[in-house]
Amino acid sequence: MSNSKDLIPNGAWPVMLTPFNIDRSIDWAGVDALVDYYATAKVAGIFTVCLSSEIYQMNPEERVELATRVVRRADGRVPVIASAVAGSAPSEQADAVKAIADTGVTAVVLLPCLIADEGETNAVWRGRVEQVLAQTGNIPLGFYECPRPYKRGVAPDDLGWAASTGRVLFHKDTCHNLDLMKLKLAATKGSGLKFFNTQMGTLIDTLEAGGHGFSSYAANLYPELVQWVSINFDKDRATALKIQQLLAIAEHSINSKYPASAKYFVSQNAGVDIATTCRSVYDSLGRHDQLPLLALIDYVRSLDLPIDIVSMGAPSSRAA
């Protein structure tokens, strides 16, 4: 197995949106356009079949088909990872891992909240992960502390153990607690595991503590800026801090009606031809929802940033 430096590059890993047609079937042309958008932004990699992809509103066949399409469209330009979604039984998890691995992804991501119920102990959880490892050969794996159906964090000692196996190469952390993240980074120091923060306001802090990048909403909005901060934070800290602050505000602006808001933003800012249609709770956006996003687009375009913004769309004054 290649080491994680080769498989999981440092930087921005957008949590890929899934474009849908009006009838809520998957918009495959939109999927291709989004992959091209991320690749053009030169992100570290793409995380598809994640919560932002609306995985709980897909059937198993669609998840496999989506991962397959993203891998094919990426065509080696960027690595792709995807989640395994299954019941808590290790055999079910292992079968889901194998199905996703067969699509050609770089690594398959386990969701801790699906491996053990909310009331079950960390020991039970670790025991099941051990069985999944045993039943999935040498397939590279990762963790994503998905907040649904409930958020189950991976404790520092459990993350250190997982890293020591050499099989778990990616960790998307959602604890939003800097002290706890530093404990996890200390527990995995020197291993092959790459640690990705989801709290934009503490990204640079975690990078300075040994983290490797970012994987959350802001990487959908401005993937090239997240990538720049992740790679250049130690070369131009003052500028990196300013961009981090901007991204934290930008990310918050889409929270209320995500992922429809992010789909709208990407379509308006980068000219990616996708609709706001979703299968999850939020679907359409009113003008009241759109105006702050359009204002954000205009504001960022007015700034003197250290890199070119990926922006192929017309000015945001166009009709919604």
TrEMBL record:
Tagged with keyword Lyase: yes
PANTHER family recorded: 4-HYDROXY-2-OXOGLUTARATE ALDOLASE, MITOCHONDRIAL (PTHR12128:SF66), DIHYDRODIPICOLINATE SYNTHASE (PTHR12128)
Xref: SUPFAM superfamilies: Aldolase
InterPro entries: Aldolase_TIM, DapA-like
Keywords (A to Z) from UniProt: Lyase
Name of the molecule in the record: Dihydrodipicolinate synthase family protein
Pfam families documented for this protein: DHDPS
Gene3D superfamilies associated with the record: Aldolase class I
Family: Belongs to the DapA family.
Highest taxon listed in the record's lineage: Bacteria
